[in-house]
Each structure stands twice: as structure tokens, then as C-alpha cells.
Amino acid sequence: MKLQRDQILNGGLRALLFRFSIPSIIGMVISALYNLVDTIFVGNGVGPIAIAALTIVFPIQIIMLAIGLMIGVGSASIISRGLGKGDEELAAKTVGNAVIVNIVLNAFLMVIALLYIDNILKFFGASANVLPYARDYLSIILIGFIFFSLSLAANHIIRAEGRPRAAIYPMIIGAVLNIILDPIFIFVFKMGVRGVAFATIISQAASILYIVLYLYYGKSIFRPKKDMFKINPGIIKNIFTIGFPSFLTAITDSIIFLIFNRTILYYGNDTYLAIAGITVRIMDLIVMPIIGISNGFSTIASFNYGAKSYKRVKIVLREAILWTGLIGSIGFIATMALPRFLLRLFTDNTNIIDNGIVPMRIILIFLPLIGFLIVGGSLFQAIGKPVPALIINFSRQIIFLIPAILLLPIFFGLNGVFMSWPVSDFLSFIVTLIFVLIEIRIINRSIDLSAKKA
What we know:
Blueprint: H1 2-10, H2 13-45, H3 48-84, H4 88-115, H5 117-123, H6 131-141, H7 145-160, H8 164-188, H9 192-217, H10 233-267, H11 270-306, H12 310-337, H13 339-346, H14 350-363, H15 367-382, H16 386-412, H17 414-453
Helix pairs in contact: 2-3, 2-8, 2-9, 2-11, 3-4, 3-6, 3-7, 3-10, 3-11, 4-7, 5-6, 6-9, 7-8, 7-9, 8-9, 10-16, 11-12, 11-14, 11-15, 12-15, 13-14, 14-17, 15-16, 15-17, 16-17
């Protein structure tokens, strides 16, 4: 640990940034590939109406993610602090209680969702044409609900014991298997969206199998024992309390996509819903590496800020903004110059391709700014200033995006729905810029004071 600390405080910042970012980038990109690959195969093997069905189900999947994220983040925090104090017993009991809570909560929600599946899908915007496809997909995905949530929580738990590389392997296994199984179930067995769903839950089950084998036979300190699985109300309460902000953030995303999808259907139709689904999946693939770099930046900035190495904080901030801006700019050039090519990856339907070019360009026009928004929020989290971080992170979603989705279509019709994304991006950029510039002035004053004392 001392060697790692010395490297973070004294090593070359660009090399450090990539060293700490690459594992996170790999994990984030693999996560995005699940939905991207499913959508590509569904679009080519079933048709645009099936893409619309996946778009309807997407916010429901975010709710599934939110539960796994809450339990994973909450338990990981308790585990890390327990191991830091040398309390391996607390860490082990937390793992056991996290598993129990995951299984019980997800099983309960799965049953409720299956009982009211049509009502849920209609609430999320499924039209009469889309409903059968969405039902076929969701009814199977719900069965794998437990696998998905457990895998996500386990990923955080493995990271918490200090093995970030080990946490990536089950994600890689799941993604590769999903890519292999999708075409088999769709084109060979002719199972349509049901085949995609089966491919997904089998891949997630394979990830869980790897995690179980890792816990029993790998280098994990959490080898399962009976004592670990005794219910501890105090630990469960802490898991929920600590993980709730992450749950709330994910649920906010779900609400946004619910409102977005329903507004598209109000002003447009299922074709534009499919277009939005394709565009969001392309955007996710571009944004995930940016989030990975932001995660790496956060660790380095935290260490150096705590050590009062303020110049290094400024330098690594500049590096993070540079590289995330570069990724966003590459994504911008690709989506602005090649929208027809990108849409053709998902479907050969000329109606989708011809009508999708303008919405894609509108939604993604401010991609070069996204990196600054994400890194800016991470800066304040890293230096222990939660209020600016909260304002930045929620300004784009709550303060700007939702009102824009509801108001802009009144004046601009369907295009106004798509315009809500760049409008909220730009306004959030202004907010983030103000906070970051103020913070840099504070850091500069600290640097000057340190120089005078020296």
C-alpha cells in the first residue's frame, strides 16, 4: 500500500491516470455492450418493432440495476472499512447478508412484476404493437433478475477486497457468451426477442458461476461459510443506508427514460422510439470510457488532495478533461459524419434509417462536453465536497433534462423531445464550469499559501 501511495503522489500523472482508468474502462464498456449487442441482433433478426420493445423495457432494467447497485455499493463500503480496521468477520458477514438481501428482495420483486407484467409495460409506454415483444422479452429477463443483481453486487464486493482485475473477469465472460449466444438463439433457433432474453440470462448465470468458483477456489478472503449467512439487521440497515444514494441516482435515470419514451410516443410513434433506443445505446458506448477515466481520476485526485499536492490535482484534472474530451469529440465526429452507417448496424429498415439521422445528430450534438460534466462532478466527490457534486450530477437530469423533455415539444414538436438532451447538456456545462472555475481559484490560493510558507 505504501508503494502504491508513493506512486500516486509522485508518479507521472498521465501514466497513472491510464493505469487506474483502464480496468474501469474495460468494465464500463463491457457493461454497455450487453444492451448494444442485444439491440443490434434484435434489429437485424427481428425488426424495428423489437428494438422499440427493448427501449420500453430499458428503464425497467435500470430499476433492476439500481437494486444491485444499492446492495453492491452499500456492502462494499462496509467491507472496505471493515478490512481497513482488520475486522474480517464484519466484512464476511456483510457479504453473506448482501447475498441474502439480494435473493429475497429480487425474488419478491420478480414475482410481483410477473403478475402485473402487462400493466407495467403499458405504464412504461408499450403500445399494442410493441406489447407482445416487450412481454416476451421482459418475462424471461425477470427470471434472470437475481443473477443480474447478484453479479452487479458481487462486482463491487470483489473490488472492495482489493481485487479490481478479478471483478472484470465475470463481466468479460458474460459479455462474450452473450455475443456468442445472441445469433444462435435468433438466427439458428428462430426465437426472436425471447432468444435474446435467454442469451442474456444464461450469460449472467455464467458470470455468477465464475464468481462462486472464485469465492470457493480463488484468492478471495470471503470463502462461503454458514456463519456468514446469519441475518444481521444492523448490517442490512447499513447496506441500505449507504447504498441508497446510488439507488436514487439509478432510479432517477429510469424515471427520465420513462418520461422520454412516453413523450416520444405522444408526439411520434414506435419508429421514433426505436430510433431513440438505438441512439441511447450508441451514446452509452461512447460515455462508458469517459466514466472509466473519471473513476481513475477520482482516486488520484483524492490521494493528492488529501496530501495537499494541489498542483498535481490541477494537472490530473487537466489530463482527465483532455482525454474525456477527446473521446467525446471522436464520438461526435462519428455520429455526425456517419449516422446512416451507424443506424444500418442495427437495422436495414429504410424508415428507421431515413428518419433517424436528424434525431441522432440532435441528441448527440454536445458529446464533446460530456467528459467535462462527468469529470467535474467527480472532482468534487474526490475532494470531499458533496454539495457541488450533487448539484452538478442532478442539474443535468432533474433540473434541466426533465423540464426540457416536457416543455420543448410544446414549441418544437417531436424534435423538441430530442432537443431536450443537448439543451440540458449545455446548461449543465455552464453550471459545472462555474463550480470548477471557483474551485480552481480556491486551489490556486492554497498553492500560493503553500509557496509562501515554504
